[in-house]
Each structure stands twice: as structure tokens, then as C-alpha cells.
Amino acid sequence: MAVDRVEILSAVELGRTLNRLASQVLESVDDSRDLVLLGIPTRGVALAEVLAQLLEQLAGHPVDCGSVDPTFHRDDLDRVGTRLVAPTSLPSSLDGKEVLLVDDVVFTGRTVRAALEALQAWGRPRRVSLLAMVDRGHRELPIQPDFCGRVVPTNRQELIALCLKGIDGEEGVFLLKGEPED
């Protein structure tokens, strides 16, 4: 199967979108020192780190950043399979904090639901918000991102790929379409 790659956001557009999202996040919190970013593996972790750097520049102080792995809280492991579990890494207690879950793509909502369940073991945040770079639709649960870079309607066979310089050597958001080979 050949894969056709369509650019959704160029590197420049991705940078602008990240700056917009960082500004929106800062505007939504009373005290940015109470903000904790938690990336959802795999790309959400790298995206959270990029956002934490932008937020530090805008807020003038470091912003806590970590990760939460929802793998063992999923209700669809038989369908999606497992990947190597990444450790949950929390920079501080979550009690009373403004937690921002960060994921690259929101699709069915099941990963986010599992991440919310995983958070229960780590404390009681004041509020939990969701940031996704791309919302591709097809929700199976009533979960919506509070902050979204781009809404990209897809069919179930298409994929969205977030590429970041530190991991991929290029930046951008791409729609991957599979087509039968001749």
C-alpha cells in the first residue's frame, strides 16, 4: 500500500499555531505557576515539552511538564493493541493544580478517557483541560479538546502525523492517505 502525504500545517504554520495555543492556555489560567502540562505518549509528550518552552517564554518562569501513560486504563486494548508502556512522570503533586493534558491527535476520545482515569491515581487537580494539535473527528465518547490547533475531518483509514524537529528532523502536520498500489 502506497502512502500519500498531504501537508496540513507547514513548519511556519505549526509554529504560529503553537504560539496561539500557548497564549490561549495562559489566558485560561488564573496563576500560570499552578499549571502542569502532561503529555500523552507518544507524540503528546514531545508536544507538551515544546509547549512548556513556549509557555516559559511567555510567562517568564518555568512551567511544570511531565507525562501520563494511559495504556493500562484503556478499554480497547484488544482492538488497538499495546505498545511499550512509557512511565508516568509527574513534575509535582497534581493536587489543586491546573492540569493540561496534551495530545497530538484526538480521535475516538478513548485515549483521553484512559488518561483521565490514570490521573485519578495521582491526585485531585483543580481542573483538567485538554489540548490537541489536531481534532480529526470520529468521537466515540463525549470528549472535546479545550484548545485545538486544527480541525481536520478524516475518514477512518486516514492518519494524521505530527512531525517535530527534535524527533523527525522536520516540522509540520500531515494527513496520510493509503492508496492501493498498481
What this model shows, in words?
By secondary structure, the chain is α/β, with parallel strands linked by helices. The chain has one domain (16-154): 3-Layer(aba) Sandwich (Rossmann fold). The protein contains five helices and eight strands; from the N terminus they run βαβαβαβαβββαβ. It has helices spanning 11-28, 43-59, 77-80, 110-119, 165-168; strands at residues 2-9, 35-39, 64-67, 98-106, 127-135, 147-151, 159-163, 172-179. The strands form two sheets. It has a five-stranded parallel beta sheet, sandwiched between helices. The protein has a three-stranded antiparallel beta sheet with strand order 1-8-7. Helix 1 (11-28) crosses helix 2.
Summarize the structure.
The chain has 182 residues and is of the alpha/beta class. Helix content is 29%, strand content 29%.
Note the topology.
Elements: E1 2-9, H1 11-28, E2 35-39, H2 43-59, E3 64-67, H3 77-80, E4 98-106, H4 110-119, E5 127-135, E6 147-151, E7 159-163, H5 165-168, E8 172-179
Parallel strand pairs: 2-3, 2-4, 4-5, 5-6
Antiparallel strand pairs: 1-8, 7-8
Helix pairs in contact: 1-2
Question: What are the salient characteristics of this protein?
Answer:
alpha/beta; Rossmann fold; 5-stranded parallel β-sheet; 29% helix; globular
CATH architectural label: 3-Layer(aba) Sandwich
As a percent range, the share of strand residues is 25-35%
Span from first to last CA? 9 Å
Structural class: alpha/beta
In N-to-C order, the SSE pattern is EHEHEHEHEEEHE
- Residue windows where pLDDT falls under 50 for at least 5 positions: none
The total domain count is: 1
Helix amount, in percent? Answer: 25-40%
Shape annotation: globular
Biggest pleated sheet: 5 strands, parallel
Q: What is the C-alpha radius of gyration, as a whole number of Å?
A: 16 Å
What's the arrangement of strands in the largest beta sheet?
A: 3-2-4-5-6
Separate helix tally = 5
Per DSSP E runs of 2 or more residues, the count of β-strands stands at 8
CATH topology: Rossmann fold
